[in-house]
Design a protein that fits this description.
heterodimer, A: mainly alpha, Cytochrome Bc1 Complex, Chain D, domain 2, 2 domains, 9 helices, B: about 675 residues, ten-stranded mixed sheet, 45 strands, globular, disordered N terminus, disordered C terminus
């Protein structure tokens, strides 16, 4: 049987040579297949906002009334389904005193960069373990999230 | 034989064979070609295909989207048929898309695709699709792969020679396969009065350059032949359109025999620039007809259907120099124009050769009046005067020709199950490959444009026989992918297809993938029943109609407890998906629905109508797995008897204290048949 299997091997080798030879003419196809599958998961970039750094957000008193009103309208459209204004948890935590528990940049990153936060931030990860639902990216801009923050401050009693 | 000796000699033989192959790289016999080449069609997990392939669905009435070279199926776009999976044609918002002058038509037969063009090249904006059975044209928006518009075609039956497109998408055409009495005539005539009463019709549908909206600019009345396929001229022949026609015998029975009598039928050349002049000069007559125009609005997430009552018709008798006929052997099928616009290839299904006509020669013949009489008053150009030459003995049953932009044509051969590659300049056959089996259309990415993208060719086969695991009497349809980058065509892959694909067009992925819509902005939602936030949810009664303003977000529906609905009520669930993230649709289904589910994209509102057919509790739930708590995304609707005094109540997350058995109202209003 040995010659037979040898024969098969030789044919296989021939086939491979042809493959290689042909593939050399076809660069794009070769590139398609060369990257290991494991690497691909991280290549599919998530769309984040720009990360907001500690200290970047300046809070002023009194609160900006216009921002509070606009922030409230965003809350009613995009946040209210999951967050109450009391301390009661619905799908996500209630917002009462959130501005006392969290830094401004943390809150805004949670709104605009939720994928990054759930990947890196231990506090955000703890919340996911409690709530079991990834907070949806509700597609707010940085400016919009700043107005939501102002509404949160107002909700927490800042005048 | 000693093994070691054998080994050495075999290795030597194989090594030299390898060398030979490496130099030539042409291991081409029919057998080796049929082995495929997985490495060239393999797209690794997580990697993208090079092309989107937009493929007609044939008798499923839809359009499907595959990746090339992998052959992977991405989407089936609902177009002319209802789709219970998405709710298209079932939801209140999408039902008007399938409205026609015949009423609601939930199915059709979709044959050909035309991608929009600018300057003869793909521009990646829209895909047009024809409905063959109840003549219609559809426009699909390539930023969301959804049907944006459907236009019915009057004076037509069997919209087969459609939706072929001009080089700047000025017009998409629709030419009738069946000639019939015109819509404003008394159609109650003996069928054998065909020659007298049946007329053909070609519609030129204009495409708004900005919005894409379609409008029948004019129709051309033609002799009562059958139109089969067509292509627009391009480059030097821009301004002309070429249609193949058969049944110039005007037979009305046993066409198989009676429409194959004449030695030659025709290619009809239409000078549409001339037609435009006649239109401007007021030569067109208004004809009273009835046809539907359906448009989907992305802001209201709702389609509207408008009935139109008039078309402008040009009669060739009033419009000299607008139409010419070119004799073409034996019932021509495909009529294809090469990338330069100079050569028109017409394939006589029953002919032994493929005639290739020359645009320059056609123009000269017209100038010289090299005519061979008239057919129904239309000048017939002398065959030889229009002919560039014939491809001799190409194979049996030539149907369609595509081009690679390198001076070659590729013609599908239905009867002999093969594709033949030939050179346009000297009409020499260069190569042939088998297809498995009975190929219909074939497609090269960009093949019908002025600049083919080339590289691949896809065959759409009618018969699969032994190619796949058998599945009872009905077998899958099949496509085959070929590498055409070299001198020889090479089979790479078989892949099964859905429906029965006819024509398809492929476009580079880079032209579409970066402009895909991800969500609908909730702020821009102008649906009259949208709930833009949970605070806007409510339930209202209007007579026996109950309207539910409902929201969906991971992972609950609001309201999820609804009471006070009565037997026989029509309940309209207007569900708004509050998500604003990509790839998070929610679904909505309720027990006993006589229609379908609805799938709601982020930021969208869709409505499912449901009739309370019995008293009881009806659960509803999200059908699209959305989060870890997807199974919890559900609710209950209570139906009470007609004379019940249960109040209209709705809530989410506000449980009232539990009552044992039925509550007070329910106790007095027990359903019939309960104890």
């Amino acid at each position: 049987m040995k010659p037979k299997s040898l024969l098969a091997t030789s044919f296989l080798l021939t086939g491979l040579s042809i493959l290689v030879a042909c593939n050399n003419e076809q660069k794009p196809a070769a590139e398609n297949t060369s990257t290991p599958a494991q690497e691909t998961a991280t290549e599919q970039a998530e769309v984040h906002g720009t990360e907001i750094k500690p200290g970047e957000i300046e809070l002023t008193t009194p609160v900006n009334k216009e921002w509070v009103t606009y922030g409230k309208s965003i809350y009613e459209m995009k946040c209210q389904s999951c967050h109450k204004l009391t301390d009661e948890r619905l799908v996500g935590p209630g917002w009462k005193d959130v501005t006392k528990r969290r830094e401004p940049h943390w809150i805004m990153n949670m709104i605009t960069n939720v994928d990054m936060m759930l990947e890196k931030d231990p506090e955000a990860q703890k919340l996911l373990e409690q709530c079991l639902v990834r907070m949806p990216n509700q597609n707010l801009t940085k400016d919009e999230s700043r107005r939501v923050l102002e509404f949160m401050r107002s909700n927490d009693g800042v005048k | 034989m000693k093994p070691s000796y054998f080994k050495t000699s075999m290795v030597l033989i194989m090594a030299s064979a390898c060398l030979l192959y490496m130099q030539s790289c042409k291991p081409k016999t029919a057998e080796s070609a049929a082995t495929g080449d997985a490495s060239k069609s393999y797209v690794a997990p997580g990697k993208y295909d090079e092309f989107y392939n937009i493929v007609s669905g044939g008798f499923n009435g839809q359009v499907s989207v595959y990746g090339i070279p992998s052959g992977r199926l991405f989407r089936i776009i609902p177009v002319f048929s209802q789709s219970p999976e998405s709710g298209y044609g079932f939801s209140e918002e999408t039902k008007p898309m399938l409205n026609t002058s015949h009423g609601f038509v939930p199915w059709d037969d979709q044959h050909h695709i035309a991608l929009s063009e600018t300057k003869g090249e793909h521009d990646g904006r829209w895909a047009f699709a024809n409905a063959n059975n109840t003549p219609r044209l559809a426009r699909i928006d390539l930023t969301n792969f959804r049907t944006a518009e459907i236009l019915e075609i009057p004076n037509s039956a069997g919209n087969h020679a459609s939706p072929f497109i001009t080089e700047n998408s000025e017009y998409v055409v629709a030419a009738t396969r069946f000639s019939v009495p015109l819509d404003d005539q008394n159609g109650d005539v003996p069928i054998n009065s065909y020659k007298e009463n049946f007329k053909g019709s070609i519609s030129f549908v204009s495409v708004d350059p900005k919005s894409g909206e379609m409008n029948i600019a004019f129709q051309i009345r033609t002799p009562g032949v059958n139109f089969d396929l067509s292509r627009a001229g391009k480059g030097k022949s821009h301004g002309w359109f070429f249609f193949s026609c058969y049944n110039s015998e005007k037979a009305n029975t046993l066409l198989e025999v009676n429409a194959s009598q004449r030695d030659k039928d025709f290619v009809m050349a239409v000078n549409w620039k001339k037609a435009e002049e006649y239109l401007k000069a007021g030569k067109a007559k208004k004809q009273s007809v009835k046809y539907a125009h359906n448009v989907y609005d992305e802001k209201t997430h709702t389609a509207t259907s408008t009935m139109r009552n008039e078309v402008l018709v040009l009669d060739p008798a009033d419009c000299p120099d607008m139409l010419y006929l070119i004799p073409c052997p034996k019932s021509p099928h495909g009529t294809d124009v090469d990338p330069t616009g100079e050569y028109i290839v017409a394939s006589g299904k029953l002919a032994a050769s493929i005639p290739v006509f020359s645009y320059a020669k056609i123009q000269k013949a017209i100038a010289d009046k090299a005519f061979d009489g008239e057919y129904d008053g239309i000048p017939v150009i002398k065959y030889e005067a229009a002919l560039h030459g014939e491809v001799a003995k190409p194979g049996l049953g030539p149907l369609h020709t595509e081009f690679d932009g390198k001076g070659n044509g590729y013609t599908s051969m239905f009867v002999s199950s093969e594709i033949v590659k030939w050179r346009i300049s000297d009409l020499q056959v260069l190569d042939r490959v088998p297809t498995y089996y009975s190929i219909g259309h074939l497609s090269i990415p960009g093949g019908p444009t002025a600049k083919p993208h080339g590289k691949y060719m896809i065959a759409y086969n009618k018969i699969t026989k032994d190619r796949y695991l058998p599945t009872g009497p009905e077998l899958t349809q099949s496509a085959q992918l070929y590498d055409i980058s070299g001198e020889k065509m090479k089979l790479l892959l078989d892949f099964p297809t859905t429906g029965e694909p006819h024509y398809a067009e492929a476009i580079p992925a880079s032209m579409l993938m970066d402009k895909q819509r991800k969500i609908y902005k909730i702020e821009e939602n102008a649906h009259p029943y949208a709930s833009k936030g949970e605070g806007m949810t409510k339930v209202e009664r209007k007579g026996n109609q109950v309207h539910v303003w409902m929201t969906a977000i991971r992972s609950h529906l609001t309201p999820d407890n609804i009471e006070g609905v009565k037997l026989g009520d029509e309940v309209y669930f207007h569900v708004t998906n509050l998500e604003q993230d990509w790839d998070v649709p929610h679904g909505f289904a309720i027990k006993g629905a006589n229609n379908a589910e609805i799938l709601i994209m982020p930021g969208e509102t869709q409505t499912l109508k449901w009739v309370a057919d019995r008293v009881g509790i009806f659960p509803f739930y999200c059908t699209d797995f959305c989060s870890a708590l997807h199974q919890e995304m559900s609710g209950y609707l209570r139906v009470s008897p007609v004379n019940s005094n249960v109040a209209l109540l709705f809530s989410t997350g506000t449980n009232k204290p539990a009552v044992s058995g039925t509550d007070a109202a329910g106790a007095t209003e027990k359903a019939p048949g309960t104890k």
